[in-house]
Structures are given as C-alpha cells and as structure tokens.
Write a structure and sequence with these properties.
Layout (H helix, E strand, L loop, with lengths): L1 E5 L4 H12 L3 E6 L4 E2 L8 H4 L5 E4 L6 H22 L3 E7 L8 H15 L4 E6 L3 H12 L3 E5 L2 E2 L4 H13 L6 E5 L4 E2 H12 L4 E5 L3 H8 L10 E2 L4 H6 L19
Parallel strand pairs: 1-2, 1-4, 2-3, 4-5, 5-6, 6-9, 7-11, 9-12
Antiparallel strand pairs: 8-10
C-alpha cells in the first residue's frame, strides 16, 4: 500500500512511519517541512502529496487552540476533500480517549475534527488513544526542574506511543471501521501514582504537590474521563517498564494525545 502520514515527524507519526515501512508499505511523510510539504491550514501541497495514495493517517497536531481549529478541524475538511479527488480509500484519524468527556478547549477541537471525518466521503476509522507515556514523562521532567511535581486529582492510563503505532498500522492495513477504536495503556493510575513511579524509576527528587481542579473539569478528571476500562486494544508496556527502558533523564518525548495541549 502507498500510505500518506500527515504529521509523520511527530512522536506518534514517527513511530507509525517506521512501523508501516517495516511492514513493507510505501510511506509518504507529509509535514510542513520535508519532501512532501503540506500545510493543512491552507491546503497547500495536498493534491500532489496524495496522488496514488491508498490510505492516509492523520497524526497532525497544533501548538495553540486557535491554530488547532485551523489545522485539525478546517484542515481535516481540506484533507478529506483532497483525498476524494485523489481516490484515497481509507482515512485514519488519530484522536483522544475522553475528548468528548473532558471540558478542555483542545479536546473540543478534537471532537470537531472527529465530526468532520464522520461527515466526509472518504471511508474512515478513528483511533482514540489515551495519554502517551512520553507526555507524562516530559511533563514530570519539566516540573521537576523546580523540585516540585504538581499533582492534580485525576486518573490516567498512559500508553507507549510505539504500541499505539502498532495499532494504527493494523487499522490502516484493514478495512475502514467507520467507527472508533480505543487504545489504552495497561494500568489506570492516579496522577500521584504516576508521579511517584516516575520519581522512583528516574531517581529524581521532587515534592509532590496536590493541585485542586474545580468544577466540571475536576469532576471529569477524577472520575476517569481520560481512561477506558475496556479498551478495544490494550498496551502491554507499563509506565514503569517504559521509563526503565529510557535514558534516565526522565524526559523521553513531548507529544501525544493531550500534549497538544493524546494524542
């Protein structure tokens, strides 16, 4: 298959690119810099980049809520329109578990992106992933520079980006699901448990500082809005095991569902 990966240089996109290439597919990396230059906010480069492609994986991201709307929602419309012209047979959208449950601006954008995909003419699959191990490690490492780890009252179910990439590759190779496939980590943990695990494995010293999250957001996070008890695909690598396999600086990546602000 010839597969275009939008955002193929990101944390997840890089893993997806490597996995699909390992399986023998002809992979095109679409990004704002590189051989296949595209800009979802304008549509520039899409027609040429999608020529003769069988499937598209959209792992794009954006650095601000305003840009997220232009790239993920409006950009998805442009991407799907270009796919229809090119005859793409399968659109795979990467989204976030709980984006419709947790009232955060970026998550609302992801819900909007999913709706655009559902309404498009290209047969589709939406993969919702929980937060990446990479995101949790990066956030904790950044906070630990100040010797404090802010810990909101919330539940997490982090997953290795490489395991999500394997699921993305499987879905992309198959028939369009026209539905959502939820991918999650093997453990549901509180943010405090995640922070203690990071501290124990990395050997870093930092004080855990509880941070209250009020209102609807706090209730959604405490009730496990970003987790799923029965995922369609469950990763096998725990946060502790993943951390132990990384260079012991505690920071092994910065992007993922939610980093966007998966995923």
């Amino acid at each position: 298959m010839r597969i275009a990966i939008v955002g193929g240089k990101g944390t997840l996109g890089g893993h997806v690119t490597a996995e699909l290439a390992r399986r023998g597919h002809d992979v095109r990396v679409l990004s704002r810099s590189g051989e296949y230059h595209v800009d979802l906010s304008t549509g520039d480069g899409l027609a040429d980049a999608l020529q003769d492609c069988d499937a598209v994986v959209d792992a794009s991201n954006a650095s601000s809520p305003k840009r997220a709307q232009a790239v993920l929602v409006e950009g998805s419309g442009r991407l799907l329109a270009a796919e229809a012209v090119a005859g793409v047979a399968h659109h795979v959208c990467i989204s976030i578990v709980g984006c419709d449950q947790v009232p955060v601006g970026y998550y609302k954008v992801k819900v909007g992106q999913e709706r655009v995909v559902e309404q498009g003419s290209t047969p589709w699959s939406i993969i919702q992933a929980t937060q990446f191990h990479e995101l949790a490690a990066s956030a904790l490492a950044a906070a630990a520079r100040f010797l404090v780890l802010p810990v909101p009252g919330m539940k997490l179910q982090t997953v290795a980006a490489a395991e999500v990439a394997g699921a993305v590759a499987d879905v992309t190779e198959g028939a369009p699901a026209r539905g959502r496939i939820r991918v999650a980590g093997p453990q549901i943990m509180t943010a405090a448990e995640v922070a203690r695990t990071w501290r124990a494995v990395t050997g870093r010293r930092a004080l855990l500082m509880p941070v209250p999250v009020p209102g609807r957001l706090g209730r959604a996070l405490r009730s496990g809005g970003l987790t799923v008890s029965r995922p369609d695909i469950c990763g096998n690598i725990s946060f502790a095991d993943w951390l132990a396999s990384q260079p012991q600086d505690g920071a092994a990546g910065s992007a993922g569902p939610g980093a966007k602000a998966q995923g």
